[in-house]
Design brief:
About 25% of the residues lie in helices and about 15% in strands. By secondary structure, the protein is α+β, with helices and mostly antiparallel strands. The protein has a two-stranded antiparallel ribbon with strand order 1-4. A two-stranded antiparallel sheet has the order 2-3. Strand 2 and strand 3 form a beta hairpin. Bound molecules: iron/sulfur cluster (2 copies).
Length: about 110
């Protein structure tokens, strides 16, 4: 039969009890509304007249925030968007723009 080291078990229990009454080492991060800097362009605008349904923007998006269904139909999820502008840069027809107009979103 293996010998138990009762000292180390006792030490472990002591350490546990001591830490119950200590303040946590980590700090709590409170969720708060983060305001976007005014220079961040916020609203996604897709010009359907220019779009040729090539889906390059959709494949360029690292966040899966855009889904091009057809030339006239696009889904954009602002909550997923990282505002990296890769979609805008990748579009061969310059159909995508980010604007400051809150009402834009595609
Ligand atoms: S800005 Fe970036 S994250 Fe947002 S839709 Fe375009 S490619 Fe995706
Ligand atoms: S990359 Fe431009 S042209 Fe191609 S699907 Fe996207 S918006 Fe349309």
């Amino acid at each position: 039969m293996r010998n138990f080291n009762y000292h180390s078990i006792f030490d472990a229990i002591l350490v546990g009890i001591k830490h119950v009454f200590k303040r946590p080492v980590t700090t709590r991060v409170y969720k708060k509304e983060i305001e976007r800097a005014p220079y961040v362009r916020r609203s996604f605008h897709l010009d359907h007249n220019k779009c040729i349904d090539c889906k390059t923007c959709m494949h360029a998006c690292p966040c899966n925030a855009i889904r091009i269904i057809s030339k006239d139909k696009c889904e954009y999820d602002k909550d997923k968007c990282a505002f990296c502008n890769l979609c805008e840069k990748s579009c061969p027809k310059l159909a995508i723009k980010f604007t400051n107009d809150e009402n834009d979103d595609y």
